[in-house]
TrEMBL record:
This is LuxR family transcriptional regulator. The keyword Metal-binding does not apply. InterPro entries: CheY-like_superfamily, NreC/VraR/RcsB-like_REC, Sig_transdc_resp-reg_receiver, Tscrpt_reg_LuxR_C, WalR-like. The modification 4-aspartylphosphate is found at D52. Residues 2-122 form the Response regulatory domain. Residues 144-211 form the HTH luxR-type domain. It comes from Amycolatopsis rifamycinica.
């Protein structure tokens, strides 16, 4: 796995590089700004980019903008975005163009090495990884959304775990229910959100995006 890291905090940037190299992963470049990050992506064609949300010069959304641009240039690039705070709007913006191979984690998650590496590999394999803290806040806010208010408590729990990028088997294990029950709840979610089987869009992704939109 070839990785580019874009992080303006030198300690975290170099610490990430050391951690990943110790795991046998190939960190091909580390950068401290959006411009140099995009140049590194063009040069090295990595499999995964780890990008800070806030980078110079304004420390607002340069990382998100750079991640979106990097995906435009290299559509198969997996991107794992790191943020110091829960910023649901940024998570929604990032996922708005498709959730495959995308992750959004709080920086504190890096210290939980096993969780961080699991999220990294999930994103590299084409999955989605959204920080549980973000999911928790979205779950609380989603109850105020008129459409999501139609969902039962269990359906909201299933949808929250779907937004973390988890498959049906893992969701069943986390909720201590059968996989067939998960399928039933997902069918209920699709029906209540008006996502018909004949829709061209991926209904699972559409449901997750509807869920994330509730945070705006």
């Amino acid at each position: 796995m070839r990785i580019v890291i874009a992080e303006d905090e030198s300690l975290l940037r170099e610490g990430l590089a050391l951690l990943l190299r110790a795991e046998g992963l190939d960190v091909v470049a580390t950068t401290d700004g959006a411009g140099t990050f995009l140049a590194a992506v063009d040069e090295h064609r990595p499999d995964v980019a780890i990008v800070d949300v806030r980078m110079p010069p304004t420390h607002t959304d340069e990382g998100i903008a750079a991640a979106v641009e990097a995906r435009r240039r290299q559509p198969d690039l997996a991107v794992l975005v790191l943020s110091a705070y829960v910023e649901q709007a940024f998570a929604t913006d990032l996922l708005a163009h498709g959730s495959a191979g995308l992750g959004y984690l709080l920086k504190e998650r890096v210290g939980r090495v096993e969780e961080f590496l699991t999220a990294l590999h999930r994103v590299a394999d084409g999955g989605t990884a959204v920080d549980p803290e973000v999911i928790g806040q979205l779950l609380a806010r989603s109850r105020r959304d008129s459409t999501l208010a139609l969902l039962s408590r269990r359906e909201l729990e299933v949808l929250a775990l779907m937004a973390e990028g988890l498959g049906n088997t893992t969701i069943a294990g986390k909720l201590f229910i059968t996989e067939s029950a998960v399928h039933k709840h997902i069918r209920g979610i699709f029906a209540k959100l008006g996502l018909a089987p004949e829709d061209r869009t991926d209904r699972r992704v559409a449901a997750v995006l509807r869920y994330l939109e509730a945070s705006r």
